[in-house]
């Protein structure tokens, strides 16, 4: 279950990162913008070192592009005899971890300038998606802690049953002088084996789900997410799951062994 949540998280995070690279700031101009204000804006664009490229799209270019895209789908668009679209600048910022921050900061500067009708870079959508990703991270951590606790108890109880089924043998070994460490080792390996089996089962299941989704829905995913391939678990996550499984197996087994040996010492 945790592996499936990680698979979902990896792909959502990949989508956000890829979409973030394509974010551009579009500056829509007022129809009656003066040449002075237009030159002032272009001066701001040139002075900002974070801006990689600036593309100016006139009203006529915007209208021609709009008609080419939608005139075949709507007769209303083809019948319009006036241009409702404004001129605009499309600003592409240099790539980096602070790219979105630079866009936000520069958009605040542009809001104070005259001659600008509106700014667009998907601020609300990005903000909501980022909040969702933060919530999802917290949810995965919380869910993971609950699952880890439950798995430790399950392995602990399984090992406890194994211990009590061999109770007579263990007591005989203690009477013959066997140390606690000697008794613990094979039972710890049993818990470790359970952890390894759990990890392998989880990773194989997640991989099968990944292959199935890719096979069945890759075409739809490409059209929705702009060609982003469905990702499998990253190497750090794979190692984290493997280490967590080994830890859970050994710790759950150790709890039962210590409890049994402590109880026997008190007796």
What does this structure look like?
This protein has nine helices and four strands. The protein is α+β, with helices and mostly antiparallel strands. It has a four-stranded antiparallel sheet. The longest helix is centred in the last third of the chain and has 45 residues, at 180-224. The model has no long low-confidence stretch (mean pLDDT 80).
What does the secondary structure layout of this molecule look like, with pairings?
Layout: H1 2-21, E1 25-29, H2 35-47, E2 51-57, H3 59-70, H4 75-79, E3 88-93, H5 99-111, E4 116-120, H6 123-165, H7 167-175, H8 180-224, H9 235-266
Helix pairs in contact: 1-6, 1-8, 6-8, 6-9, 8-9
At a glance:
This protein has 267 residues and is α+β, with helices and mostly antiparallel strands. The protein has helices at residues 2-21, 35-47, 59-70, 75-79, 99-111, 123-165, 167-175, 180-224, 235-266; strands spanning 25-29, 51-57, 88-93, 116-120.
Q: Structural class, from helix and strand content?
A: alpha+beta
> Helical stretch count?
9
Secondary structure tally: strands? 4
Biggest sheet overview: 4 strands, antiparallel
One letter per element, helices H and strands E, the order comes to HEHEHHEHEHHHH
| Strands in their spatial order, largest beta sheet | 2-3-1-4
Rounded mean pLDDT score: 80
Beta-strand content bin = 5-15%
**Large-scale geometry:** elongated
Q: What is the end-to-end distance?
A: 41 Å
Global Rg? 31 Å
Q: How much helix, percentage-wise, in residues?
A: over 70%
Unreliable stretches (pLDDT < 50, length at least 5) are none
């Amino acid at each position: 279950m945790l592996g499936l949540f990680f698979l979902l998280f990896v792909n959502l995070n990949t989508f956000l990162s890829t979409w973030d690279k394509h974010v551009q700031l579009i500056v829509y101009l007022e129809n009656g913008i003066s040449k002075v204000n237009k030159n002032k804006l272009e001066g701001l664009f040139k002075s900002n070192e974070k801006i990689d490229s600036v593309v100016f799209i006139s009203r006529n270019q915007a209208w021609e592009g709009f008609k080419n895209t939608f005139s075949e789908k709507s007769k209303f668009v083809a019948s319009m005899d006036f241009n409702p679209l404004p001129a605009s600048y499309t600003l592409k910022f240099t790539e980096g971890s602070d790219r979105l921050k630079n866009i936000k900061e520069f958009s605040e500067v542009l809001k104070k300038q005259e001659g600008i009708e509106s700014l667009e870079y998907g601020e609300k959508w990005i903000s909501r998606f980022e909040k969702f990703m933060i919530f999802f991270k917290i949810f995965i951590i919380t869910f993971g802690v609950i699952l880890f606790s439950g798995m430790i108890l399950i392995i602990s109880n399984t090992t406890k049953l194994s211990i009590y089924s061999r109770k007579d043998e263990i007591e005989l070994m203690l009477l013959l002088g066997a140390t606690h460490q000697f008794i613990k080792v094979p039972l710890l390996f049993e818990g470790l084996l359970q952890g390894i089996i759990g990890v392998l089962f989880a990773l194989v299941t997640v991989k099968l789900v990944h292959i199935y989704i890719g096979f069945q829905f890759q075409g739809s995913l490409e059209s929705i997410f702009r060609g982003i391939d469905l990702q499998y678990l990253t190497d750090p996550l794979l190692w984290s799951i493997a280490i967590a499984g080994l830890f859970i197996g050994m710790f759950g087994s150790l709890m039962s062994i210590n409890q049994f040996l402590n109880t026997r010492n008190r007796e």
